[in-house]
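[Solved] Which block belongs to which protein?

Original post:
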Amino acid sequence: MKRAAQLKMGLAICCVLAAAGCAQNSAKAPAGANPDIAVKGIAVLPVKPVSDLDENLSGADGKLLQGGSQVLDGLMKERLAGKAGIHFIPAAQAGKMRGDGYNLATARLVAAQAGCNVVLETTLSRYNERVGGEYGAKQPAAVTFAYKLYEVSEGRVLCHGRFDEQQQSLMENLLDLPKTQSRGLVWLTAEELARAGLKERLAQCPYLEGK
């Protein structure tokens, strides 16, 4: 009788531990994430200006995008800093991928070197700075970027998004009142607009949402 009671107690403890283990495992997958893909780590590639891929861009436009890509790259690091499983790939290591546009084969290689199975790729195609002050801009800032998060074994896309905005005054677009209020009733710099856009778009991806 005593032995039977001990067996029952042992089984009960095992069930509790098993349930706890399942809860821990399920907690690792963000809400809305693909349950069939276990993310071991995310390799974040440096932001790539489209001037690297388009030889027809003028020198001035290419220079703007080169500078803007460095700004956006810093904002990406700021946004994802401290998030578990994130590995920022140094520009020198990713540089060899520039010529072929970060294709899957080379992305897989760089991800493997970082111990990751998922890659975050971001491209910048417009970065125009504000002309004027925060209360009276002659030309508003404009930023366009796109990102794609994909696992490298088969290239399946987990998240993707695009931000394309030239700031407008409140009178030009009354429908954007909540957004304008959240950003402040001023004309933003290109960096400030890019930061706001990055926050908005990454928040839509369960693997990248954070602070």
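(Second protein starts here: sequence line, then its structure tokens.)
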Amino acid sequence: MEGKHRIGISSFTYCFACGTRPDHKPERVMTPHELIGKAVALGVQVVQFGDNMPLEKCSTDELDMIRTYAEEHGIELEAGMRKATPERLAEYIDISKRIGARVLRVITDGPDFQPDLEEFCRILSDAVPQLEESGVCLGIENHDRFSAQEYAAMVETVGHPQVRLTVDSVNSLSHEETVSEVLKYMAPYCICLHMKDYVIKRYNGGGGLKVTGACLGTGRLDAQNFYEECRTRSDSDVNVILESWMEPCETLEETLQREEDWAEKSVEYLKKMI
């Protein structure tokens, strides 16, 4: 489908700066305003707040200020959450509406919440009236427990245009699914594309394999094909959000600098590609 396909960054572009890793956490973590500022500096158009920058901790006044700041700088916002109980999903749809987010990226599970497919489809169906009222579209992300085919089944079961998918380029490796398998089932319903690169290395004296991140364009991902498949097969406008699985360096200072370098180089790669 031809339409708007904007480039964006996420709080998962800056995992370390946002304090995602407790063992490599700066004294002062990145704020939502600072993440928007990064987007402006990088020349991208979208910011997605992931669950490592939880907007539920913000007051309504703070959420209003985030929206105003983004609008002043021409940045489109997307929200993100994990653990999609009916109550939390309703809360985050309201948060998304408050900040003017068109898309709410959703990871189904939490530490004490792992619904089966049927239960989660009921939760999604029950949320449809609120989605219609708010104008927010869900982007359910492929993660660890469900297969790509099951994510497609969620959309097909609910049967509503505001229930769609966030297609991540790497997450489904934990489900032993290739990128092509993910695209086969999920690309037609893509509302958001999580772009991150990866490498597979031998470790432990060759006695095992390790999947880890790479600066976009330097790893195993065929980023151009991944984007084109979602762009041409999706029935929605698709934002392309940069994420990162970078490993830490020896010091926090080096880690934060490499994270910034990867963000800059990866965004430049996306700009040339799209």
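Accepted answer:
You had them paired correctly. Confirming on the second one: The chain has eight helices and ten strands.
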